[in-house]
Known about the structure:
By secondary structure, the protein is mainly β. It has a single domain (2-345), classed as Beta-galactosidase, Chain A, domain 5 (Distorted Sandwich), CATH 2.70.98. Helix content is 5%, strand content 41%. The chain has helices at 59-64, 236-241, 319-322, and strands at 2-9, 15-23, 26-31, 37-43, 49-51, 72-73, 79-80, 84-87, 90-93, 102-103, 116-120, 123-130, 141-150, 153-162, 166-167, 171-172, 190-193, 195-199, 212-213, 225-226, 245-250, 258-264, 270-276, 280-284, 291-292, 298-299, 306-310, 328-329, 335-345. Strands 11-12-13-14-29-23-22-17-20 form a 9-stranded antiparallel β-sheet, with no helix packed on it. β22 (258-264) and β23 form a beta hairpin. The protein is globular, with a radius of gyration of 19 Å. The two termini are 30 Å apart. The model has no long low-confidence stretch (mean pLDDT 97).
Amino acid sequence: MIETKLFGKTKDGKEVLAFTLTDGQSRAVILNYGGTLQSLVVPDRNGNLVDVILGYDDVAGYENNGGFLGALIGRFGNRIDRGRLTIDGKDYALYCNDRGNHLHGGAVGFDKKIWGHEIKGDELHLYYVSPDGEENYPGTLNVHVIYTFNKSELRIVYDAISDKKTAINLTNHAYFNLSGEGNGSVANHVLWIDCDVITPTNDTMIPLGEFRQVKGTPFDFNAPKAIGQDIEVDDIDLRQGGGYDHCHVLKNGAGNYQKYAEVLSPDTGIAMECFTDMPAVQFYSGNGLAQSGKFGHYYAKRNGFCLETQAIPNNVNVPAYAEYGSSIYEAGKRYFFGAAYRFSTKS
């Protein structure tokens, strides 16, 4: 069942709707503003309901604060070196909004758009048409995202097609805290990621073609460990990121839908299994959080974490990364990927 309510209005008077997807006791709230995952309530080991998503109580919170909390990201999730995009010999200068680089779609990305919507049974369908030249990307891009919440699993399907050759790399930027949003650090959350290599970056967080084996480093989560166990180790990539903010190249490979991560809060017993057919995931430990959120809670540094499924950042400029899944799509070629978060409890 999906219920629709008015969430509020934007600065320019546009209505923002909240769609509540109910699954037994659990529920997820999605906004048509940015396709944002505003809330996700699931039971803990004692049956108490816990909201595990960082967010805001009103539209102004999403309009006035950074961090992309819970939002759909596009046309290109993550970073592109100095905003450089070249397609068939033509250069497109993208807006640089992060240390001289292009981040999460530029000046006004998909996270700031009002999406069209349609409810089909237990599916929420969101639509956005990005016109040719928006943020200087070529091609009119028709984007269709489907949210479902069934059997304790929130699933997101990304579907897009352009009328010109262009770059596409969509993701969701949900911040999770399985102890409950507003309940402090996620440092004690136990994380497993099915990954052998990350893409190290320069001092502006741009990966430039290298791969780094995780074995023997703080980035090795092949054996489950607490997020905070190695986060303060003196490591160049941790120093540059202020913690974890790195692309983990997944073993499953693009197009193979498999489980790639699992996270557990020892406090609540809430466990989250993560699935995708995208080639990589950006694990971000919330190093830049510093804002007031829902219910008067303050989100401090590392009070939430992100697992953003995507193609490898900057792959439009690095052929070695594009081999794992290129973000350059020919006109008429369908972009189609999925991601899911499945919840359970452990004693």
